[in-house]
Every structure is written in C-alpha cells, then in structure tokens.
Amino acid sequence: MKRAVIEGGRILTGEVKISGAKNAALPELAASLLTGEELVLRRVPRVKDVETMLELLLELGGEVHVGETVRVKMGTVRGDPREELFRAMRASVLVLGPQVARFGRGEILWPGGCSIGERPIDFHLQALRKMGAEIREENGRIQAKTRELRGARIRFPRITVTGTENIMMAATLARGETLIENPALEPEVKDLADLLVRMGAKISWDRDGLHIEGVDGLHGAEHTVIPDRIEAGTFLIAGALVGKKIKISRCMPSHLQAVLEAAREAGVEFQEGEDWIEVKGGGQFRALEIETREYPGFPTDMQAQFMVLLCFAHGVSTVKENIFPHRFRHAEELRKMGCDIEISMGRAIIKRVSKLRGTQVLATDLRASASLVLAGLVAEGRTVVEDIYHLKRGYENFFGKLKNLGAEIKEE
Ligand code: EPZ
Q1: Among 114, 251, 311, 339, which one carries the catalytic annotation?
Q2: Catalytic site residue 251?
C-alpha cells in the first residue's frame, strides 16, 4: 500500500488553487443518466471517486470522454458493472434514482464507502418506494422497478445529502410534483439542482422544502462544478498550523462560513474575498466547543482537520460529532503523535499540547487521512501515513499542491 512520508516543520507560503468539488461532481455525473443527450462538466476533480463513477457509467453503456472537460452521454443503459465499483464508493447509490426515473428500472449493489461507521441507504429506498418503485433486495443486489414514478411528499427520517440528491434526480421525470420537506441544503445539492434546471428540470425551494415538478424528458447541458469547500477548509487549517502566508484561490468562502467563524473564534488570522481566502499562521489558538451539523452548520467533513488545530489551542476543546458518531478513528492515530484527545459519548475532549512528534500512523478514511497529513506538517521529525489511498479518493493533487507551498512530502 502507498504511504506518505512527511518531514515536519517546513513553513508553507504561496498560492493554492482549489479544485472542483468531488461531492458535487459525483451526483452531477450520475445526472447524465437522466437524458440521452450529452452532459459537459467543467472543473471535475481528477480524484479516485470520480474515476470510479466514470467507470460505472461506462460499464452501464455510456460514452465517456475525459479531457479539459468531462463529457458523458448515456444513450441506452445496459451491461452489468463490476461489483467492486459499487463497493468502492458509497456515492454509487446515486445511479439508482436516475435509472428508475428514466428507464423504469435500476440495479445497484449495497454500496461501500469509508469506514466512518454504518452507511445505510434505507432512506433512499423508502422514498423511492413512496414514489411507486418496487424494491427487491437479494444477495447484496438491490433492484428497483416501476411502470411510472409518481411525485410524492417525502420527509426523510433525518436529513441526508445523497438521499436528497437521489430523490431530487428521480423526481425530475416522475409524474406530478414531489416535495422533499427536509432537504439537505449543502452547496453541492444546490449545484446539482442548478445543473438539473439547465437540463430542463422544474425545481424550486421555499419554506415548505424542495419542490420538483416532473417533466417528460431532460436534455443535455454544460455546467461548471463549484469549488471544493472541504479542500479549501483543509488548506485553511494547513495555513493556520504552518503557514507564513497562503492564498487559497478559486474557492467560495460563502460556502465555508461555519468553518471560517470557528477559525476566527479559535484565533486563526485570515482575510476573505469573493473567491479567495488568505491565511497567516503562527498565531496562538483558543479552545472551542464544536458540534458538527448539517449545512449550514459546521461540516462533519472538516471535523478531523480542525481537531489538529484544537490540539494546540489554549484550554480544553470539545468536538461533538452529530452526523457520524463513530467518526473519531483519526483521534487514536493523532494520540500516537502526542495529541491529548479523549473520546467519550460521541464527543472528543482535546487538551493543548506544545508539540507533536512524527511517527508512523494509519489513515482510515478520506478526511482522517487529511488530518494526519496536517499533523505531519506541524510535527517535529518524520511522519509516515500508511494507506494513503484514502486521501486520493477526494483530494486532487494534494501532495503536489502542498509541495508547491514548500512542504517536504513524498509518496512511496
Ligand atoms: C454525504 O454522504 C457526503 N458524501 C459525505 O462526504 C458527508 O460526510 C455526508 O454527506 C454528510 O455531510 C457525498 O456527498 C458523496 P448522509 P451521505 O446521507 O449522503 C444516515 C466525504 O468525506 N443515513 O447525509 O452518505 C447516515 O448514516 C464524504 O467527502 C441513514 O441512516 O451522508 C448519517 O448518519 C464522507 N440512512 C446521516 O444519515 C440513509 O439512507 C447523514 O448521512 C442515509 C443516511
């Protein structure tokens, strides 16, 4: 397995350009199943999960061209994609809703994904059933079929990002109106809605929720994927920890307000503009109490990275993980580097330490691996992060961007 080797203590400075958002590109690629015409997406990040989605679409019979832009055309759907494509990525569930809507049938395997705890898709299936799909599950396969999807009033048991995306896509071709009473409001969901409207869908939001009026068909479209707010947040923490001055450009600070507010409260020094953030490191940090919430709350995908900053904050910080209660496996690895973190009842209690020391640690999921790299940048000595493939699932050219800023990091 590949690993990252980091020599800590290097001061980072310069500019980093943020890539397109993985969690917007994935549902937007799946949206190509809603039409037989070509979809053209710009600023699709070259990350493993996107490659997996493209392979899935190819093996469903699609035409895929990857160049400066990504072009996908899903004429008819046939073929039986390899199981590992479904197991490798939870977002594979997103090909179900569009297939059922356009062809009256769809099949997926129970998706895999990160190790951040149980990743069920029962909300997706319940909602499709309510829209008239017959769902059968046998030996790991999920088959959905229907003569015609009908619009329905959907209230998920709890807010779900890909659940909202899956049902929103299915509803674009259902008969009648669908109302999702408690939609996820993440920028990636909104960006998908913008694309679907460009494809001819009828979607609107009001205080009752997300309204989708079914139409007979959708056409092709062009779209530029929004920048990745979690990548931008990750570089903000890098800058706070070991930056002299880092300019994070081509980002959208408006998508990161909860993280920026927490960073400001913790004492991180930064300026923000329309599409950039400039962060200066070397300050003293103050302890915080953080709770992860659905958007616009503090994002669970930034919890592991922010925890590294809190290890240096004066006082006692706490992090309550409300989305994935088990998403603390990075804490035991950070402890090996000298962090003082206790986990109890879904909450991390973090006490200040003056320094971290490099050692061998194990990456367990996408954002945990980012937090271990951040810790390696600030630790004394050498840090080796094993199983670094997790990081490649969601960060485009992460090591190259860090090296350009002055980090001493290599993959072997
Ligand atoms: C999306 O996952 C993101 N992935 C995750 O990012 C992100 O952490 C998560 O939203 C929360 O923001 C993509 O967009 C591809 P959920 P998703 O459905 O949609 C429970 C990353 O790092 N639930 O919003 O899978 C679930 O267990 C990844 O880029 C059910 O019980 O998350 C969780 O506790 C990691 N049944 C909560 O709801 C369901 O059918 C929210 O999950 C669906 C969800």
Answers
A1: 114
A2: no
Same domain, 102 and 247: no
CA–CA dist 313, 307 (Å, integer): 10
Give percent of the chain above pLDDT 70.
Answer: 98
Summarize pLDDT for 250-281 with one digit per residue, the tens.
Answer: 999 999 999 999 999 999 999 999 999 999 99
The Å distance, Cα 378 to ligand 1 centre, comes to: 30
Distance CA 52, CA 90 (A): 11
The total of structural domains in the chain comes to: 2
Ligand 1 atom with least separation from CA of 367: 22
Contact 152, 181 (CB under 8 A): no
Pocket, ligand 1, Cβ cutoff 6 A = 23, 26, 90-91, 114, 119-124, 158, 160-163, 300-301, 323-324, 366-367, 394
Shared domain check, 348 and 207: no
pLDDT tens across 16-31, in order?
999 999 999 999 999 9
- Among the candidates 224, 255, 284, a domain finishes at 224
- What pTM value is reported for the model? 0.97
Give me the CATH number covering residue 151.
3.65.10.10
The Cα 116–Cα 384 span in angstroms is: 22
How many angstroms separate the CA atoms of 210 and 167, rounded? 11
Using DSSP, state whether 186 is helix, strand or coil. Answer: coil
Q: Is there a single domain that holds both residue 168 and residue 311?
A: no
Which of 92, 122, 162 most suits a substitution to test ligand 1, by most atoms within 8 Å of the C-beta? 162
Domain end call among 195, 224, 253 = 224
